[in-house]
Design a protein that fits this description.
binds nicotinamide-adenine-dinucleotide; Rossmann fold; 11 helices; binds uridine-diphosphate-N-acetylglucosamine; seven-stranded parallel sheet; three-stranded mixed sheet; alpha/beta
């Protein structure tokens, strides 16, 4: 199987490339390196003892992308390429719509041209907005409040329309909850360019002494300890979810556009996460409780039953293991790649 991975040099993409190579797939990465380092792929090759076909390019260049797809006889695509900072999307929405929405349209055109009609898309639990019910199932209503979330929801709608118009398309829309952790080797992991927005890399950098202390955004939520609750999913479990989605697309069971939650089903509070990280690292994590962050919800965790039933996939690793692996990556690579 020849798989194109757009954005494959990034955090989730690199872990997915590794799992695919370990299953003997032929992996081809197309990435403009706007938020990644090609060293991740060199390390993936080392771990897998196998090669990745890499091309530095922007998915919005439909001509180049089409020739990459046809010259490598691609069978299916996993589409990670996109921008993911909520704050930046608020200050520069056009950049987000251009990259995430126009980029996906360019990819769809290139795939149509090359008659490749199997696609796995990286969506996000952000499309559920403020959930009415927990855990969140795929049938829950969608709504978003920032351009990043809008770009994901728009792409979901475009993909649903594409599959409706042409029954040859098979599309698995994966809604990730909170990806965290790193490969257990400590060789590949999350490498944020600036001060991290997400909690796990922030806590790791506090533990290693790069950042002074964590600000906990809100201690007065209607949750068991007052801090925000999320569904943290180990990046290796997440990567395996993509393999399960590809197997599904290649089966006779697949039809049209289907959404799947990729999460553990278990909510973890910020205070519980800190405790788990302190245990894994043996370090004290100083923190202050400050005002809530605008746009945050109190609690968000998945009902992953559909992915379990239809894809045969289930997250295996818990928050302790996520913290251990995040810490190993942080200690081995204090300045990233
Ligand atoms: P990442 O930034 O590490 O990876 C994205 C990759 O895409 C990077 O390597 C970047 O260089 C590349 N890229 C961006 N725009 C491109 C373009 N126009 N052409 C070619 N390459 C381009 O992010 P990640 O955490 O690995 O996330 C992967 C995908 O999953 C993204 O679409 C993101 O929105 C989605 N997602 C991520 C999270 C998360 O918490 N990390 C949660 C939900 C959904
Ligand atoms: C955030 C984004 C979401 C995106 C996801 C993955 C916002 C509002 N939401 O989700 O759209 O899909 O990242 O990239 O930005 N926290 C702290 N202190 C910190 C950082 C976070 O207390 O310094 C808390 C948050 O309030 C939240 C939890 O930790 O309760 C997780 O935060 P984060 O890692 O940023 O993920 P989300 O907010 O779930």
């Amino acid at each position: 199987m020849n798989v194109l991975i757009t954005g494959g040099a990034g955090y989730i993409g690199s872990h997915t490339c590794l799992e695919l190579l370990l299953k003997k797939a032929n992996v081809f990465v197309y990435d403009n390196l706007s938020n990644s380092n090609v060293k991740s792929l060199v390390l993936v090759e080392e771990l897998a003892r196998n090669k990745v076909g890499f091309y530095k390019g922007d998915i919005r260049n439909c001509y180049e992308l089409s020739s990459f797809i046809s010259s490598n006889m691609i069978d299916c695509v996993v589409h990670f390429a996109g921008l993911k900072s909520v704050g930046e999307s608020n200050s520069d929405p056009v950049k987000y719509y251009d990259n995430n929405v126009s980029g996906t349209i360019s990819l769809l055109k290139a795939m149509e041209r090359c008659k490749v009609k199997k696609l796995v898309f990286s969506s996000s639990a952000t499309v559920y907005g403020t959930p009415n019910e927990l855990p969140i199932s795929e049938a829950a209503p969608t709504s978003t409040i920032n351009p990043y979330g809008q770009s994901k929801l728009l792409v979901e709608k475009i993909l649903a329309d594409v599959a409706k118009a042409d029954s040859d398309w098979k599309i698995a829309n994966l809604r990730y909850f909170n990806p965290a952790g790193a490969h257990p080797s400590g060789l590949i992991g999350e490498d944020p360019k600036d001060i991290p927005n997400n909690i796990m890399p922030y806590v790791s950098q506090v533990a290693v002494g790069k950042l002074e202390k964590l600000s906990i955004f809100g201690g007065d939520y209607n949750t068991p300890d007052g801090t925000g609750v999320r569904d943290y999913i180990h990046v290796t479990d997440l990567a395996k979810g993509h393999l399960a989605a590809l197997n599904y697309l290649n089966s006779s069971q697949a039809c049209g556009f289907s959404s799947f939650n990729l999460g553990t089903g278990k909510g973890v509070s910020v205070l519980e996460l800190i405790k788990a990280f302190e245990k894994a690292s043996g370090k004290n994590i100083p923190f202050d409780i400050v005002a809530r962050r605008q746009g945050d919800v109190a609690a968000c965790y998945a009902d992953p039953t559909k992915a379990n039933k239809v894809l045969g996939w289930k997250a295996e690793l818990d928050i302790e293991r996520i913290c251990q692996d995040a810490w190993r990556w942080q200690v081995n690579n204090p300045t990233g790649y």
